[in-house]
Every structure is written in structure tokens, then in C-alpha cells.
Amino acid sequence: MATGGGHVGSRLAAAGLKIVRGAFYEKRHPMEKWLALTGCTGDTAARVRGLLVNRRAPGGAWTDTRVLFKCRTREAH
């Protein structure tokens, strides 16, 4: 992964941080538990299930991709 960070990199730089490493990872969310925790029910829950159909994982879960940056302050060596 390039660690320039694009838009995120420029915002971190403005905060005095430098990206030293970045990684993507997938996070699994059990669909029904996640819907219940968000209070999503009925027709809205059915619509959400449809919108996430291409993100479905085995066992009734869905996944999303997260990005994690390790940063240092500009003064750090």
C-alpha cells in the first residue's frame, strides 16, 4: 500500500502527522445482530440487506474494508 494517503494523508499532515505504514483489512459484521444493534427493522432492514448483498460473507455476515494508518509526529525519528 502506498503511504501517501491522498486526501487522508494531507489531513493527517495538517495535524502534524506523517504516515509510516498503512494497511487495509476487512471487518465482518453478523447481519442480524448488526441490524438489531442499529435499530433497523422491517422494510428498512430489508432494503439494507439488499444494498449489502455484494458485501455478503458466509454465515449471514457482511464485510466492509477498513484502512489503518500508523503515524508519527513530524518531530519523531
Shape: elongated
Low-confidence stretches: none
Please write the string of helix (H) and strand (E) elements: HEHHEE
Q: How confident is the prediction overall: mean pLDDT?
A: 88
Helix and strand composition category: alpha+beta
- Number of distinct beta strands: 3
Largest pleated sheet? 3 strands, antiparallel
Strand order of the largest sheet: 1-3-2
How many domains?
1
Percent in strands: 35-45%
Number of helices: 3
**Termini distance?**
22 Å
Work out the helicity level. Answer: 25-40%
How big is the Rg? 18 Å
3D architecture notes:
35% of the residues lie in helices and 38% in strands. By secondary structure, it is of the alpha+beta class. The protein has one domain. A 3-stranded antiparallel β-sheet has the order 1-3-2. Strand 2 and strand 3 form a beta hairpin. The chain is elongated. The two termini are 22 Å apart. The model has no long low-confidence stretch (mean pLDDT 88).
Keywords:
alpha+beta; 3-stranded antiparallel β-sheet
Task: Give the helix/strand layout.
Layout lengths: L5 H9 L2 E14 H8 L3 H10 L4 E2 L3 E13 L4
Antiparallel strand pairs: 1-3, 2-3
Summarize the structure in short:
The protein contains three helices and three strands; from the N terminus they run H-E-H-H-E-E.
